[in-house]
Specification:
It contains nine helices and five strands, in the order αβαβαααβαβααβα. Strands 2-3-1-4-5 form a five-stranded parallel sheet, with helices on both faces. It has one domain (4-182): P-loop containing nucleotide triphosphate hydrolases (Rossmann fold). The chain starts with 8 loop residues before the first helix and ends with a helix. It is an alpha/beta fold and 188 residues long. Helix 2 crosses helix 9 (173-187). It is 56% helix and 11% strand. The chain has helices at residues 9-18, 33-44, 51-59, 63-70, 72-89, 104-113, 123-130, 144-159, 173-187; strands at 23-26, 48-50, 93-95, 115-120, 164-167. The chain binds shikimate-3-phosphate. Residues 29, 33, 52, 63, 97-99, 136-138 line the site of shikimate-3-phosphate.
């Protein structure tokens, strides 16, 4: 049996039961890591946490303020520490910022202690989605399409190390959530 429409309560329950490690969503800005992460956590009856929100909470500053006041390296170090903490505290679903999995230490930790799920999406969709909010400091440094295209090239090698790879598109979030759960079910 397979197929999106057949991912019923029993299958979701069996899937949740098999998980002994956090699910960690990775991928570029605009792929929907937080939205999809929250949704699959709800479907599986697991907790959800967003690493960027935790960084903002811990530092009492927005991501843009951290980049402006302290620089990207400082942000990356905070991100590494926050994700390390979340990985030990959380058995549910964790959404990470787009650069987190590029950091060697963070990537090694996620791969060892969690299940990394790469949400991979075409550039047109990412440009459209990221244009809805102007809270991402990296996208203020030039043209968003050029920046996202470059980041995709630079980061895909690291992202491809994830245990689960889901190619998404401009689909409704519930369909992407189903795609993720089916890919996960196959991998498990
Ligand atoms: C970043 C992605 C952002 C945030 C920060 C840096 C990146 O998170 O962590 O602006 O390096 O790709 P989202 O991927 O959730 O937008």
């Amino acid at each position: 049996m397979s197929g999106i429409e057949e991912l019923d309560e029993d299958r979701l329950g069996a899937l949740a039961h098999k998980l002994d490690r956090p699910l960690v969503l990775i991928g570029l800005m605009g792929t929907g890591k937080s939205t999809i992460g929250r949704r699959i956590a709800g479907m599986l009856g697991l907790d959800f946490v967003d690493a960027d929100d935790e960084i903002v909470h811990a530092s009492q500053r927005s991501i843009s303020e951290i980049f402006d006041e302290f620089g990207e390296d400082y942000f990356r170090e905070g991100e590494r520490r926050v994700i390390a903490r979340l990985m030990t505290e959380n058995k549910g679903v964790i959404a990470t910022g787009g650069g987190a999995f590029v950091n060697d230490e963070t990537r090694a930790l996620i791969l060892k202690q969690g299940i990394a799920i790469w949400l991979d999406c075409d550039i047109d969709t990412l440009v459209e989605r990221t244009s809805r909010r102007n809270t991402r400091p990296l996208l203020k440094q030039g043209g968003p399409r050029e920046i996202l295209t470059r980041l995709k090239e630079e980061r895909s090698g690291a992202y491809s190390r994830a245990q689960v790879h889901v190619v998404t598109g401009d689909l409704p979030h519930h369909e992407t959530a189903m795609q993720v759960l089916e890919a996960l079910e196959k991998w498990l």
